[in-house]
Specification:
The structure holds 2 protein chains of 2 kinds.
Chain A: H1 4-17, H2 20-38, H3 40-72, H4 75-80, H5 86-116, H6 122-146, H7 150-172, H8 180-184, H9 188-199, H10 208-238
Chain B: E1 5-15, E2 22-32, E3 36-40, H1 47-54, E4 62-67, E5 70-71, H2 79-82, E6 83-86, H3 98-106, H4 115-121, H5 137-149, E7 155-159, H6 167-182, E8 186-190, H7 194-200, E9 203-208, E10 211-216, H8 218-225, E11 229-236, E12 239-246, H9 254-262, E13 264-270, H10 275-283
Parallel strand pairs in B: 3-8, 3-9, 6-7, 7-8
Antiparallel strand pairs in B: 1-2, 1-4, 4-5, 9-10, 11-12, 11-13
The chains are: A mainly alpha, B alpha/beta.
Chain lengths: 239, 295
């Protein structure tokens, strides 16, 4: 892991040079504008939703964009033939994605706090945003490896969201009973939303919070170990 | 004094997961310190696979590879401190400048070469602050070469290193390879450009369908596959004629000496076979002049 710092520095440099950070900031500004238009009455319900969108959907898309660039430029392989080690390489990518989510979560939360007085537990928020981003970065890698191009990635992402979002929507509409929520925790989408809502002090079953957090870590770790690592190497070497 | 072996490869075999055919089918060879060793062969012959195994990108091979007397698989990532790899395709971040790319990669090594002189050496110094995306293919290939030298490697793996370069820039790279060798470096060169082979390689191995079919020096190959004859072109009655003579006993060949005395000679060539012809003779295939996308 001795090369983690230069790799991480390189990731951040590329986020700026490839304008990924700027795009992420632009999206954050867009969320702020929408919050401003929504007004004080409903803003508390939308703030967690926007942070959730950034940590999940945006993470997958930005990881995908980053990885497609690297595939296109054949840089995956050249990083593998450095003394860095694969763990440091992966860690730098995960951490740079978490940095992007942090900037968005921080800006949106501070805006909501100072303008509308929406309170939040920053400690929990950043812990959970990190876990959610970790899991969705791994998902972003998986979808990118299987997608032919960026459009393919978007199609897979939409399919994923539909598959996991619908049960949550049905639950919110009261189609399922309360006991169904335990099963819904198997949906990373539902678990992620619940963790962010908890950070904002919304009415959630606290017993589900550790389950959701552990579940996201396990899914992220499993995706990384069994899909991301072997497929990343395979893709890189095939270049 | 015998040279130290850098790589000793014995009965190396490799099969891709979804294939039943061996991509590398039991090859053995030794690469010595300070040697430029060429691996030649048609597309899909197993050149790139062999290089990927030696650069530890493929690890599930069979057979034995010793690097400096130690099993290659026993080396950790520190192995990459010793080697530099020049890929066939550009491998840089296009939205970073040439210098930013080199600085990023350089920081990943313990031993770091001075980047500025390397950029000067390949004629990229003036363009070092331009985005790589604005570079021509030739410039990107030269940057690839600098990338390979960033860590002061002991061994260079070069894949089609002069492909796409104009003669002037190809010369710069070839001179740099020679200088690297003269400083004790070892080069593993994979190419289909026979001109490079003739100029650079101390020994070459021809690989066909995963098997090495011939290993020799370029000179040995030329003698073995050459025609022992002398071809003379001479001026005769207002036009150019030619005559061919057996090389053996040419000093006693009266027709030959008479021709030399009586005619105006335009050219004399021994029946040397070109490396192109040797390639075709040994591998049984035409040289792929396009971009080699070897398996």
């Amino acid at each position: 892991m001795h090369n983690f710092l230069p790799l991480f520095k390189g990731e951040i440099q590329r986020l700026v040079k490839y304008k990924i950070l700027q795009i992420a900031l632009l999206v954050t500004v867009m969320w702020l504008a929408i919050l401003f238009l929504i007004g004080e009455e409903s803003v508390a319900e939308f703030v967690p939703l926007f942070i959730f969108m950034d940590a999940t959907l945006m993470t997958v898309m930005l990881v995908g964009a980053n990885l497609f660039y690297e595939k296109q430029e054949n840089t995956l392989k050249t990083l593998l033939i450095t003394p860095s080690g694969f763990a440091a390489l992966m860690m730098s990518k995960f951490l740079s994605a978490i940095v992007l989510s942090f900037q968005s979560a921080a800006v949106i939360s501070l805006f909501a706090y100072f303008i509308f007085g929406v309170s939040v537990s920053f400690g929990w928020l950043f812990i959970f945003v990190a876990l959610i981003t970790f899991m969705h970065t791994a998902l972003g890698f998986v979808l990118t490896v299987f997608a032919k191009d960026f459009t393919g990635l978007l199609a897979l992402l939409i399919a994923y969201m539909f598959f996991f979002a619908f049960p949550t929507i049905f639950y919110a509409l009261g189609v399922f009973g309360e006991t169904a929520e335990l099963w819904l925790m198997f949906s990373p989408t539902h678990a992620s939303m619940l963790l962010i809502e908890f950070s904002y002090g919304l009415d959630v079953r606290t017993v589900l919070i550790p389950i959701g957090a552990i579940y996201l870590v396990l899914v992220g770790a499993a995706l990384t170990k069994w899909i991301v690592v072997p497929k990343y190497v395979e893709t890189a070497v095939r270049e | 004094m015998p040279k130290t072996p850098v790589f000793e490869v014995k009965d190396l075999r490799f099969t891709y997961r979804k294939s039943s055919i061996e991509a590398v089918a039991g090859i053995s060879f030794t690469v010595h310190e300070g040697e430029v060793f060429g691996l030649l062969g048609p597309s899909g012959a197993g050149k790139s696979t062999t290089q990927k195994i030696l650069t530890k990108l493929y690890t599930d091979y069979q057979g034995d590879i010793q690097y400096l007397g130690k099993d290659l698989s026993s080396y950790s990532n520190d192995y990459y401190e010793d080697i530099g790899v020049g890929f066939e395709l550009p491998v840089h971040f296009s939205k970073l400048t040439g210098m930013e790319n080199m600085k990023f990669f350089s920081e990943l090594y313990k031993s770091r070469a001075d980047i500025e002189p390397l950029m000067k050496m390949v004629g990229l110094h003036e363009d070092k602050d331009r985005l790589v995306g604005e570079y021509s293919k030739g410039m990107k290939m030269r940057l690839n070469f600098v990338r390979a030298l960033l860590n002061n490697p002991k061994v260079l793996f070069l894949d089609e290193v002069t492909n796409g370069l104009d003669p002037k820039n190809a010369r710069i790279i070839k001179d740099a390879i020679r200088a690297f060798k003269e400083n004790g470096g070892t080069v593993f060169l994979s190419t289909h450009l026979m001109n490079d082979v003739e100029e650079l390689c101390d020994r070459v191995a021809f690989i066909r369908r995963g098997e090495i079919v011939e290993i020799a020096t370029p000179r040995e190959l030329k003698i073995k596959h050459g025609r022992r004859e002398v071809k003379v072109e001479y001026f005769n009655n207002g036009k150019t004629d030619e005559a061919t003579f057996e090389l053996d006993g040419i000093g006693d060949n009266e027709d030959f000496t008479k021709l030399l005395k009586e005619k105006t000679i335009e050219t004399i060539h021994s029946g040397e076979t070109s490396m192109d012809e040797i390639f075709i003779a040994v591998t049984g295939e035409e040289i792929d002049r396009g971009d080699d996308v070897d398996a």
